[in-house]
Design a protein that fits this description.
globular; mainly alpha
Length: 318
């Protein structure tokens, strides 16, 4: 008897990957067909990647005093007379490479911006859920607290909070905890938008049948808010977080420019702009122009990406 030929088992059709499913979705199609969206995402990804890889690609570590030479102070960019390799964008009055300082400063600004958005989002979402779910006196108390925060200019509120936290710390801990103080200062002045958004959506969701059914079977309120109501409120929260990221980075730069942010030993983009502004009219224009361009590119790309995300997630604009 001839041996039967064994046919290979028919393989199931391969499922498309997550990236492919995203590109085939409505949001993916909007992303692919909106030049401002993918271009801003590309620029932002490049800026974030270079900031993360700063220790590998920067010619110098601006935090290491052994790599800074005072005899290399105020060297112009390499395309001008007097420029030297590897100082592509020149050096500052301390002999610090401007390109390296920008890469490391971008890391500081991005980390503070992301951390401030996450903290403010956690605080605002928690307060909004509690106010919208319980209502009554709790709602009035929390919302009046938000109105009080909004009645004070954001910059003055951030300066006040930063000054209070700094005075609470011993002098030896002020510089090491400068980034933490900045994150708390920015977060405590920007949580109200998240709270109001989540409160309005929670007041709508709590009257729906699935929430009423969960309350009838005595599901804990914390579980109802976390497992049922919160997922239905995240879309506008994510849009607001994307838009507020640019504002958080600008707030950090403003506070550092005013001298209540990051110290000179741990410069952010705002600190670099403050230092370079002192030499703007002395001929060392590159000290303030290049950090300002970097800050402008980051904020512009984040804002363009946030505007696209807001329109893409709005069903009325589809």
């Amino acid at each position: 008897m001839l041996a039967e030929k064994i046919r290979p088992a028919e393989t199931a059709p391969r499922q498309p990957g997550r990236l492919r499913r995203f590109l085939d979705s409505d949001i993916g199609w909007s992303f692919r067909t909106t030049p401002a969206a993918w271009l801003s995402a590309l620029v932002l990804a490049l800026l974030v990647l270079t900031a993360i890889l700063a220790p590998l690609i920067a010619p110098q570590n601006p935090y290491d005093l052994s790599q800074i030479f005072i005899d290399k102070a105020e060297i112009p960019p390499i395309w001008q007379d007097g420029g030297e390799w590897p100082f592509l964008l020149g050096t500052d009055p301390q002999g610090r490479d401007v390109l390296s300082a920008i890469l490391y400063g971008s890391r500081v600004s991005l980390i503070i911006g992301f951390a401030a958005v996450i903290v403010s989002m956690l605080v605002g979402v928690s307060i909004g859920l509690a106010a919208g779910f319980y209502g009554g006196r709790i709602d009035n108390l929390l919302m009046r607290l938000g109105d009080t925060v909004l009645s004070i200019p954001t910059l003055l509120m951030a300066i006040l909070v930063s000054a209070i936290f700094r005075e609470m710390l011993p002098p030896s801990l002020r510089e090491p905890f400068a980034a933490v103080v900045l994150v708390l200062s920015i977060a405590l002045t920007s949580w109200v938008q998240y709270a109001r958004t989540v409160r309005a959506l929670t007041m709508v969701e709590r009257r729906k049948e699935y929430v009423l059914a969960a309350r009838i079977i005595r599901v804990p309120a914390s579980r109802i808010m976390a497992r049922h109501i919160l997922p239905n409120t995240m879309t506008p929260v994510l849009v607001a977080a994307t838009l507020n990221l640019g504002l958080a980075i600008l707030s950090e730069a403003t506070l550092s420019f005013l001298g209540v942010g990051m110290p000179i030993t741990q410069p952010s983009l705002g600190t670099l702009i403050r230092i370079g502004n002192q030499y703007l009219f002395s001929g060392s224009w590159w000290l303030v122009v290049f950090p300002s361009l970097q800050l402008g590119l980051i904020v512009l790309s984040v804002n363009l990406l946030g505007d696209w995300l807001r329109d893409a997630l709005n069903p009325k604009l589809r």
